[in-house]
Amino acid sequence: MKPIVILGIFVADTAYRAERQPKMGETILGTSFVLGPGGKGSNQAVAAAMASGGGMPVHFITRLGRDAFADIARATWARAGVKPEVTEDAESYTGAAYIFIENATGNNAIIVAPGAAGRVSVADVEAKRGLIEGASVFVTQLEQPIPAARHALAVARAAGVVTILNPAPAAKLDDAMLALCDFVTPNETEAEALTGMTVTSVAEAEQAADALLAKGVGAVVITLGGNGALYRDRERSVHVPVISAGPVVETTGAGDAFNGGFAVALSEGRDVIEAVRFGCATAGISVTRPGTAPAMPARAEIEALLALS
Question: Catalytic: which of 89, 124, 182, 256?
């Protein structure tokens, strides 16, 4: 099968749990700390590789420094079966992220310092042009520089590859870039950043999706947290409820799990609504576990949950 190709960043997640965030100038005691792999692109690559069950290659294009955090990246990808397409950058460092997790809710707040991956360039994309052109599905986000993401989407689109943009972190994008996307997959906050429209319900998500369709997007999937996901194109609108696998432990990697699972299902030729359900099941399992990449479920787990739903 043709591979899934993902452009994005890896960062080492430094995750702190506490009752609340400290105020400026304040020091508080936390309840736990975990160092692990992160970065939206890397998480999505791990999710896709796990969700494919080894059925197709998943390639990840990024930059790393030459340091201990880079070692974590490579070990993470090796365990999941991700094929790294890495430029080593001796002039920078492998990225890192501060993640605060609220004990009572599992909600999070994040600061990302992308380091070497913040230097991903159009030239890096050109070096992997053939790989992108030969993909079944291409996925990117907005943690690496936008010019690189735009160029990669254009390369993929010109080659007839299915393109997915997960517009995270939230940013305003011009219509020309959005028109390169077969699917845009924002959450509520990201949809608001793209459209200027508040998204707090399915009805508001439909309105925001229509605004994105008017900008040239092929189809929109707005992830709605505990309310599932909304799929909308120019012919149909379907609300897919959340697919629960148990109590929520941590939501940090839920969007990445969804995008990885969604990409796999599309690459397998599934109907798009079935692909959304597959993504929701992938996310539904991931939130029952701590961490981001380590929380991504295996293919058998996803299929088992779908069989019960």
Answer: 256
